[in-house]
Amino acid sequence: MTDEPYLAGLFSLDGRVALVTGGSSGIGRAVAEALARAGARVVVLARREDELDRTVRELEALGCRAARVSADLGSREGVRAAAEAAAEPFGEPDIVVNSAGINLRPPMEELGEDVWDATMAVNLDAPFLLGRRFGPGMAERGYGRLIHIASQQAFRAFVTSGAYGVSKAGLVALARSQAEAWSARGVTANTLVPGFVMTPLNERLSTDPARVEALAARTMTGRNGLPEDFAGAAVFLAGPSSGYVTGQAVFVDGGFSVH
Ligand SMILES: NC(=O)c1ccc[n+]([C@@H]2O[C@H](COP(=O)([O-])OP(=O)(O)OC[C@H]3O[C@@H](n4cnc5c(N)ncnc54)[C@H](OP(=O)(O)O)[C@@H]3O)[C@@H](O)[C@H]2O)c1
Fold first, then answer.
1. How many whole angstroms separate alpha carbon 134 and alpha carbon 147?
2. For this structure, is 6 an active site residue?
3. Is the CB–ligand 1 distance for residue 224 below 6 Å?
4. Whole-model pTM above 0.85?
5. Tens digits of residue pLDDT in 205-219
6. Is residue 154 lining ligand 1, measured as CB closer than 6 Å?
7. Is the beta carbon of 202 within 6 A of some atom in ligand 1?
8. Whose CA is nearest to atom 23 of ligand 1?
């Protein structure tokens, strides 16, 4: 017999509002659905309108409440405007998931300042600014969950890490700093660390079966990641039962990092 009220006490997001950047594709899309199906009202944020509309339609078809914000997180002004727009549909978020990210892979010797700046803006500056915008309100209300999607490349060089790995290492440190600032007032901050996940971000790599197979062989589970692998971990980190888990990097990688 499943004790539904007990499970709800651990994991239910009823009454919570979540913002998921990059919620229209890949890992963010799966996380948005997981949080919505666990009871949260979810705002998905990205640039492309069609993908956003489709996501909202699909979530609503599941009986969930969802809204969308089309915005570019590539500039500080863009992030500030996006944050205000994101708080409109359902009010201030209790949960912010930073999944929007870009991975441009020029070799180090060709890595220009433009790629560096663009990478830092979306992957690191936006999560920092969104945390600064929403973290204090969460702390005042006594509940908040900041969840960042990092990467193996925060910890190791891997497939031309370049600026990307640096931005993701910064994100792991950002979670620690946010945890230090707000955990005593009910706001946790953590990162989820994927391995290689089959999403549009990896389109080019995914079309090379030999590379895909070689990456799968580096895991312990024998396969690459899927967006839905992040559903349970995201619900846990967003929910009441993870209140004593903060500042952590949680690897959801099939054992890639320990093989
Ligand atoms: N896939 C992997 O193997 C892997 C491994 C490690 C870490 N990660 C990380 O996981 C996160 C999600 O990746 P994914 O694989 O799910 O990628 P994805 O399918 O390409 O999704 C990326 C999302 O970010 C949005 N986005 C990109 N640039 C944006 C911008 N300037 N402003 C607003 N939204 C923006 C995209 O929508 P629009 O293009 O419409 O804006 C899309 O919704 C990323 O942070 C990535 O670094 C992925």
1. 13
2. no
3. no
4. yes
5. 788 899 999 999 999
6. no
7. yes
8. 22
Look up the CATH number of domain 15-253: 3.40.50.720
Q: How confident is the model at residue 49 (pLDDT cuts 50, 70, 90)?
A: very high
pLDDT at residue 161, as a whole number: 85
In ligand 1, which atom is closest to the CA atom of 100?
A: 24
For 51-60, write each residue's pLDDT tens digit. 999 999 999 9
* Centre of ligand 1 from the C-alpha of residue 254, in Å: 20
Q: How far is it, in rounded angstroms, from Cα 25 to Cα 148? A: 15
pLDDT single digits (tens) 126-163: 999 999 999 999 999 999 999 999 999 999 998 788 99
Q: Which atom of ligand 1 is nearest to the CA of 168?
A: 47
Q: What count of other Cβ atoms lies within 10 Å of the Cβ of residue 214?
A: 11
Rounded to the nearest angstrom, the distance between the alpha carbon of 58 and the centre of ligand 1 is 19
Residue 150 identity (one-letter amino acid): A
Domain residue spans of the chain: 15-253
Whether the CB-CB separation of 130 and 56 falls below 8 Å is answered with no
DSSP 91: S
